[in-house]
Specification:
The complex is a heterodimer. By secondary structure, chain A is mainly alpha-helical. Chain A has a domain of about 110 residues. Chain A has a two-stranded antiparallel ribbon with strand order 1-2. The longest helix of chain A has about 50 residues. Chain B is mostly helical. Chain B has a domain of about 90 residues. Classes of the chains: A mainly alpha, B mainly alpha.
């Protein structure tokens, strides 16, 4: 029996055992009723599985530690890369975002899958051919320059670290909801789950746990989708025929648009926004008035022995009240925009680029295309994805492996729009039109999670739920999908396990990428070239532990706005890596000075644009540069990537011609 | 252990001390031409596939508003193309690239082997 056959046999056995366990739990739940224990079993069993695999794959050999011995078969590397790629944001967030914003979110679906075409055509085969350990190692060798290496290490850390923190926060959210521990404790549990995979065995252990994690996460997504669709009469493979359901949803959406009660609610929200607008225009007087009012209310309540609950609510309102008039302007504008958004007439899911005027539509379309471009190029430049192709056996195998990666990712992404439509149908037909007296059971637990995932309030006091009265956080769509559709609780547990697998696998890959860039490219190449391979592995492990603890600490601060930074990571990776990677292989004339200039220009422009246009940062620094052509800060890569290309080309042409060593190296990279 | 890990192929490898490639001594004009043909084929293939992929991902959404009223099987055409069609096309593009490049690899190997066997013995051997 060959190694590949043995691997296939083991993973088939594992798959059967795991889904057998799920089936068994479903049977137990059927006879004894749902309970919290389901969540515990899923989370602990899966983490135990990863720990066992991590332990079995422990190693202290340097090639095994950095690149899994370069002998992972293409299919398995494809699966591992798919798990590496599918992050908490993809698993939890994407379906919700499609649910909430329809056509707009297709930019993510197309961008995140199309990027792999670029990986296959332009990057993976050549990275594998040069057979280095990390992305900075590849660039440093190609350009024969310590500066290129250093810049690459900086850019790698910059875009991977925020991404890592976001994964850990995802783990915290899942743990809070499903096993009811504190956010911080959840994060440190997740950290343990990540470290058991990567600490002992580096890339080797991460690869084999990622394969196991992929098997869990894909089942956790596809099984509920099939079951919900079957319940709605679409059969078990809704990916092929959910168009029928889309038409039913469209009809319901038209009803919502035209119903007078819905219009009432929307008018009501419009009024709320107008009141806030009025207050904003009367700042700072309105701020002082509001503050005084609040304190007076609190005083009267205390003097007249108001109920404890009312006092608590008011005290909380006072604690959350903006610090000064400037802060009030910001927070009130945000509230006003939220009301305005909720007051807007809902548009059909399929409608591309809804806008009030032609100009606005053009801008909307431009931003859609810009975002898609950034996500595509960014996907092709993410260090933790590209290093994965170093673990394949040959150039041809690296190419095949990208194909498998896209295949496994496509299985997931093809089902995401289906789930979004299924849930929309479920909400429109089962929640809208209900009386407030008998709201479905699933609403209550999600209402009580902090921060609130769903709020339903009777805005026009008619006792009936209207579409506009429901405000759902997009992140709850996937996690709550089985409950919303009335499936057994065991499937909620399975989805949580899948989300956890998605977050942990991505976090593993990112952690390893950061730590390896530090240990190989900084410690070994720049500090101690004579270190023995044993010492290098030990240093790599210590750095891994350090980076992991730092990331967990940052994540436990739970600072907001991290999600924006994750989106921005794509632009940052695209601007700093894509031009030099592509030019390095496809244009022989690129010199090391050209590469340095290109990376600096791309990264610099991209970071400058984000810093000067993203509201959160402009409020801190007080400097606002204004948008260029109306492009949102998340798509800053559309400026950074061309800047990187142009600068790298210009600087190379001004520089001396590359020497024989560089030319021979490019020839070498290009040969299969 | 050296910086370069062991490779299963008999191809030229990097010199661990200088990180520069050790190219084969016998590098005949025929070999150079075979490599050139291989690389040109690769470039043309990439260009064609990128144009197809680019059209699907960028040109189609540009005309999405005017295509939105075309329906099939319940889907609006631009929505379907974004949600499923584009992904399926990307998968096909990569499959095509992998298959055609494997064929090109084989042709290159044959071209490298024949004259090498006939002219000089030092040429790199076939792939492992």
């Amino acid at each position: 029996m060959t190694r590949t056959q043995r691997l296939i046999r083991n993973y088939t056995l594992y798959t059967i055992c795991f889904y057998g366990l799920v089936y068994l739990l479903a049977l137990i739940e059927h006879s004894t009723g749902p309970g919290v224990w389901v969540g515990y079993i899923f989370l602990f069993v899966t983490i135990a599985i990863y720990a066992v695999i991590g332990l079995l794959a422990r190693t202290s050999d340097i090639t095994e530690y950095y690149v899994a011995g370069r002998n992972v078969p293409a299919v398995f590397n494809g699966m591992a890369t798919a798990a590496d790629w599918l992050s908490a944001a993809s698993f939890i967030g994407l379906a919700g975002s499609l649910y909430a914003s329809g056509y707009d979110s297709l930019a993510y679906i197309m961008g995140w899958t199309g990027g792999f075409c670029l990986v296959a055509f332009l990057l993976a085969p050549y990275m594998r051919k040069l057979a280095r350990y990390t992305l900075p190692d590849f660039l440093g060798t190609r350009y024969n320059s310590a500066w290129v290496r250093t810049l690459s290490v900086c850019a790698t850390i910059l875009c991977s670290f925020v991404y890592l923190v976001a994964q850990l926060q995802g783990v915290g959210l899942i743990a809070t909801r499903f096993i009811g521990v504190d956010f911080e404790i959840g994060i440190f549990c997740g950290l343990a789950g990540i470290l058991v995979c990567s600490f002992l065995g580096g890339m080797r252990a991460v690869t084999w746990t990622q394969v196991a994690q992929y098997i869990i996460l894909i089942g956790a997504f596809l099984i509920p989708v099939s079951m919900i669709a079957h319940k709605d009469g679409l059969g078990w493979v809704p990916q092929l025929n959910y168009g029928r359901l889309m038409q039913r949803v469209e009809k319901l959406e038209t009803q919502v648009r035209n119903s007078p009660a819905e219009q009432q609610v929307r008018d009501n929200f419009q009024h709320n926004a107008a009141v806030l607008q009025d207050k904003i225009s009367r700042l700072p007087v309105s701020y002082n008035d509001d503050r005084r009012n609040l304190e007076q209310q609190l005083d009267t309540l205390r003097q007249h022995n108001g109920s404890l609950r009312e006092i608590k609510t008011l005290e909380r309102a006072r604690a959350e009240f903006p610090r000064d008039a400037a802060a009030a302007a910001v927070s009130w504008s945000q509230q006003r925009d939220t009301w305005l958004a909720r007051a807007a007439v809902p548009v059909p899911t399929y409608q591309p680029f809804p806008a009030v005027s032609d100009d606005a539509r053009r801008l909307h379309k431009l931003n859609f295309l810009a975002l898609m471009l950034c996500l595509m190029v960014g996907t092709a430049s993410l260090p933790h994805i590209l290093t994965r192709y170093n673990t394949t056996t040959s150039v041809a195998s690296a190419r095949r492996s990208v194909g498998w990666t896209l295949f496994f990712i496509a299985l997931f992404y093809l089902s995401v729009p289906v789930l979004a439509v299924l849930i929309k149908y479920e909400i429109l037909s089962n929640l809208v039109g209900q009386h407030y007296g008998n709201l479905p059971d699933w609403v209550i637990p999600w209402r009580n999670v902090e921060p609130h995932m769903i709020s339903i309030l009777d805005a026009n006091y008619d006792g009936v739920v209207q579409w506009a009265e429901i405000a759902m956080h997009p992140d709850m769509i996937v996690l709550a999908a089985p409950e919303i559709a009335g499936l057994p609780y065991v499937l909620s547990g399975l989805i949580a396990a899948g989300a956890l697998a998605a977050a942990l696998s991505t976090a593993d890959g990112l952690l390893l990428t950061i730590a390896n860039a530090l240990s190989h490219d900084v410690y070994y190449t720049m500090v101690d070239r004579s270190a023995s391979s044993q010492k290098r592995v030990i240093v790599a492990k210590i750095l891994l532990l350090g980076v992991a603890l730092l990331a967990a600490w940052v994540a436990s601060l739970n600072a907001g706005n991290i999600l924006f930074l994750v989106g921005a990571a794509f632009s940052i990776a695209a601007s700093s890596f894509f031009p030099v990677l592509v030019l390095g292989v496809f244009w022989k004339r690129t010199t090391s000075r050209g590469a340095i200039a290109g990376m600096l220009a791309g990264l610099g422009l991209c970071v400058y644009y984000i810093a000067s246009t993203y509201p959160f940062i402009t409020h801190m620094t007080g400097y606002n540069g204004g948008l260029w052509f109306g492009i949102e800060p998340i798509s800053s890569g559309v400026f950074g990537v061309p800047a990187g290309f142009v600068t790298a080309i210009a600087a190379s042409l001004l520089d001396r011609k590359p020497d024989a060593r560089d030319l021979a190296l490019v020839d070498y990279i290009r040969r299969p | 252990m050296t910086a370069t890990p062991p490779r299963p192929t008999a191809e030229p490898t990097l010199d661990p001390a200088t990180d520069s490639p050790l190219l084969p001594a016998a590098h005949t004009a025929i070999h150079a031409r075979a490599h050139q043909r291989y690389w040109r084929f690769n470039l043309i293939l990439i260009a064609v596939l990128c144009v197809v992929g680019g059209t699907v991902s960028f040109v189609l959404p540009m005309f999405a508003p005017s295509l939105a009223q075309i329906y099939f099987g319940g889907w609006s055409l631009p929505y379907y193309m974004g949600a499923q069609g584009a992904i399926l096309i990307y998968v096909m593009l990569i499959c095509l690239y992998v298959l055609l490049m494997q064929r090109a690899d084989r042709i290159l190997q044959q071209a490298l082997q024949q004259p090498a066997a006939a002219v000089v013995k030092q040429a790199p051997g076939p792939r492992a």
